Amino acid sequence: MLFAKNSFLSINKDISELNINLQKMIGAKHPILYAAAKHLFNTGGKRIRPSLILLIAKITAKNKKIKPEHQRLAEITEIIHTASLVHDDVIDDSDTRRGLDTVHNIFTIKVAVLAGDFLFAQSSWYLANLNNLEVVKTISKVITDFAEGEVRQGLTNFDITISLEDYIEKSFYKTATLIACSCKATAMLSNCTKSVQNDFYVYGKHLGLAFQIIDDILDITSEANKLGKPAGSDLKNGNFTAPLIFALEENPQLYQLINQEFLNENDINRTITIIKETKGIQKAKDLAQEHIQLAIDIIRNEYKYNNTETLILLSNYIIHRFN
């Protein structure tokens, strides 16, 4: 693994196999569509979502062994995640992703949208071939939630009345739903009880919310070369996140910059500076920590005898991505 290699030896082989399979699963007859889809996976990523699925599979499966269905679910989840990224980049007009040019920058917006659609279609086909109706229902809902999240975000751009509750709900639709549903689906494939399935759904939900909050903090605190995309992208697009919402409570001066939609060239940098001078970032970190703790408590309290140390380590990694 990219973030704690020695700690994840138990699934290193599975992740390597996943990387190979992803290239095979995106086969397309049209060369440009294939090149666009292949570029998405060549940009790397930490494979956090597949890692979660594989680790939960090892905890929940009766023989503690990852089944082929678990492996395929991990691959499907990564394809869905990647498809959502290419559509996000088009909507946000992002130039870079993970330090490389975005698909619509290399090709065209039309090709990028089609590449995203193609990946969603491929994931649906492989999902259907799992031959598990309950898993199909659970994961299919994610794609609907993605669309809901994008619509909600689009309707609240530059909306100074957005509440923390609105932000959390939007974050669920955009990020947490995939993690929550894939964690639940993993338990389904392990033939776990409804109670266990729901535990892992709630675990994934809190983990996903923490992940999104940390991402939103990094959008403000990280340098562009470390972030892999321009810093302050959320602000520029009028997508208001936890650090800004908390900062607004402390410094009303931000309202003027928002109302003029960062009209002047230096307004984004000025806004970031003001946010850093408030307790907004620390409050957002505290909020993310609360969600991580809620997630870890479920694992630690209910499944402490199931070799959950690595899963807890991965959960904690999410909150420590500042380092």
Automatic annotation (TrEMBL):
PROSITE patterns: POLYPRENYL_SYNTHASE_1, POLYPRENYL_SYNTHASE_2. One of its GO terms (biological process) is quinone biosynthetic process. InterPro entries: Isoprenoid_synthase_dom_sf, Polyprenyl_synt, Polyprenyl_synt_CS. CDD domains: Trans_IPPS_HT (cd00685). Coiled coil: none annotated. Keywords: Isoprene biosynthesis, Magnesium, Metal-binding, Plastid, Transferase. GO terms for molecular function: metal ion binding; prenyltransferase activity. Its cofactor is Mg(2+). Belongs to the FPP/GGPP synthase family. This is Prenyl transferase.
